[in-house]
Each structure stands twice: as structure tokens, then as C-alpha cells.
Amino acid sequence: MGACYYILIASSLIQTGRTADVRNNQGLTAVPADLEKTGTIKLMNNSISDVGVGLFPNKARKLFLHQNLLTEVSPNAFCNTVLEQIFLDFNFLTSVPDFTCKSNSLQVISLTGNRLVGHMDSAVLSPYPHLRSVRLGFNNFTSFDRDLFCNFPLDTLNVESNQLTEFPYLGCVADIFLRLVIFNNPICSISQSDIGNFTALMTLGMNGLCLPDLEIILSGNSHDSGCEWFVSVQSEDHSAR
What we know:
Blueprint: E1 5-9, E2 12-16, E3 19-21, E4 40-42, E5 62-64, E6 85-87, E7 108-110, E8 117-120, E9 133-135, E10 140-144, E11 156-158, E12 179-181, H1 192-196, E13 203-205, H2 214-219, E14 228-230
Parallel strand pairs: 3-4, 4-5, 5-6, 6-7, 7-9, 8-10, 9-11, 11-12, 12-13, 13-14
Antiparallel strand pairs: 1-2
């Protein structure tokens, strides 16, 4: 195994090799100009308010930018990269950023804990034919287009702690879908077909919904015993998740 070398920069740690890691630096307000040219970039828990355009290495595949001060992201911010996974959790975004220039490579979009509200149109995610994981928890979405998750091979969806009143439609990916977390939404009606059509489902998190008939629905489900259920009709606190 090759040796790892560490360089101390502005009270943060950058590891040369596979990961450039610059985190927990409240004085860091912009993307460093001398980031390691590597596939994984970690810039979490800083005070970055602008990611600029073309500031990330061409080799960058995974970008971790959660817990910064971002209110928007330029559509051209990551066009020079080979971006596959983007994590923008717990920033201050009020709209889903446009990653269209990475439509042929993007597989994971994580926007947990921002300020996204209202209805999401299917056009927002339709440009990404390889998208497999979408994380939208701890926002304030109220509804989704019926076909929002139907234009790509989605296998993981987290929409916990929003204001959804309807179970998201996933019938179009039922044969490949693996994980759904939908904790703490005011969903009070669900049909057996909403869950029962999944043939590959491994994890279903449904705590904190107002579904008095939930146990009846699940008892009629024909899932493989390997599925991990997190279900309750009682509201629970998941603020630490």
C-alpha cells in the first residue's frame, strides 16, 4: 500500500492521493485554488458561499459540499469535471441546481436540509438518464409530478421530513427500486399497490406518517423476508438523522 501524505492548510487537512479534504474551517469562504487533482473532494462544514465556475479538478467524481453557505450554484460550476455524485446537504438553496452539463455522468443528487419548497416538476430531474439516488429530506416539498422519478434507473429515494401528502409514485421503477425513506410526512392515505409492486425493495422507512391502516397494508405485502421495515403509525423525532 502506498504511503499517504498530509499537508496542513489554513487549519484544515488535505490528504494527497484519492481524496482532497478541506473541512471544518469557518474562515474558508471560497473553493481553494490549489485543490488536489483527485476524484473525491470534501469541503464540508466551511463558510463557502460561492463555488464559482471551473474551480474543481477535471478528475472530480464525488463532491461533498454540505454544511456551507450556498444559496445558489452556477449551471456551469462543474462542467469541467466528470461529476457522478454531488452532496449539497444543509446549505441554503431555494431551488434545485442545474447540473445539465453533467447529464451523462450524474448518478447521485443529495439536497437534504435546504430551503426547497412546494411542487417539483418532472423536468427538474429528467435530464439525468443515469440517476440512481435522490435525497431530498428535510425540505418543504408538498408534491411531486407523478413521473418525476420515472426517467432514470432510480433505486434509492429519501424524502423524509417534508410536507408530502401523497406517496411518491415509484411504480415505473418497481423492479429495481431498493430503498425508500419517507419518515415524517403528513401522508394519511396509501394503497397496497403503492408498496406491494416492489420486487427488489430492501429498506422501507415510514415512521411518523398518519396511516391508521398501515399494519393491514403491510400484512398483505408479499415481499421477500430480507426487506428491512421501519414503520410506525406514531410520530417520531428524526431531527438528528
